[in-house]
Amino acid sequence: MSDVIFQPTDLANKRTEFLEAARNGQARLRDKDGTSFVMLPESRLRLLETLAKWWQAYMRLEALLHRNDLPRAGELGELAWLRAFDREDFQEFVGELHDALVAANADEDTSVLDECIKAWRITARQLEDPLRRSVLHGRFVPEDYVEAREPDAAQ
Amino acid sequence: MPHNSAYDPDVPARRPGSKPSEKPRYRVLVHKRYLAHYSELAERVGLKQAQQFWDHVSQDPGNPDPIASTCFLRGQAGRPKGPGWSRTIHYEVSSSARIDYQYCDTYTTEPDGDPHPVVAILTINYSSH
Q1: Tens digit of pLDDT for each residue in A71-121?
Q2: Are residues A101 and A51 in the same domain?
Q3: Is 0.80 topped by the overall pTM?
Q4: How many Å lie between the alpha carbon of B2 and the closest alpha carbon of chain A?
Q5: A107 at the B interface (CB within 8 A)?
Q6: Does the distance separating the beta carbons of B76 and A136 come in below 8 Å?
Q7: How would you write chain A as a 3-class SS string?
Q8: A106 is in which domain, residue-wise?
């Protein structure tokens, strides 16, 4: 937290210093009624919002995991796509989400978190279809596979 | 008779696409239930993209494709099918065509068989996300 606290009049007199402080992390300003404001880069605000949203989701999912039955779509809300997973996958998702959140927090970058969520969402979509699910979850049986030819215009 | 045309019936047509075909390093297999889907690939996504996928899996299935988006599937769907198999790779051929595959560098058809590299196409999904 910055030690410098700007006043409303500084927005005119010290705007360069104020903006520089904001650019470097945060600029604090105290209004005449004592209300404290903070200005920070928008990217930093988005990072904090994303982390807060997913930490909240993580806490909710972890609490749901302590029950015997899997959560229903209505309980998952915008994470209802997770209903494609059984308990084992659900637990793995929650564990990976935790690791991604810790990494994103440390990196101050949500790339790892974004990749984690995207890959799990793709997996959920692939599992929606019963045939895809059975092949993806099943063991490899050589007799189930045939030679694939190079695609050509005649196909 | 003089041969004025560039066309030579004894020379095979060149492969469409950006580069000449190379000998596949990996033998490519497809699950029987998705053979019909696979045969529609060029028609669905265009010959160039279908061949780009082929080039990728037959030559270098373990590395990211320079153009197409790939990721590992997660959870049980992403686990290797056996010793030596890769995790499941999800390859986006186009916005409406996705293929899941695994590869094995030392695949054998029998316990004492000759190990060779193979790619197994597990599923093909033509629905758009």
Answers
A1: 888 889 999 999 999 999 999 999 999 999 999 999 999 999 999 999 999
A2: yes
A3: yes
A4: 32
A5: no
A6: yes
A7: CCCCEECCCHHHHCHHHHHHHHHCCCEEEECCCCCEEEECCHHHHHHHHHHHHHHHHHHHHHHHHCCCCCCCHHHHHHHHHHHHCCHHHHHHHHHHHHHHHHHHHHHCCCHHHHHHHHHHHHHHHHHCCHHHHHHHHCCCCHHHEEECCCCCCCC
A8: 43-137
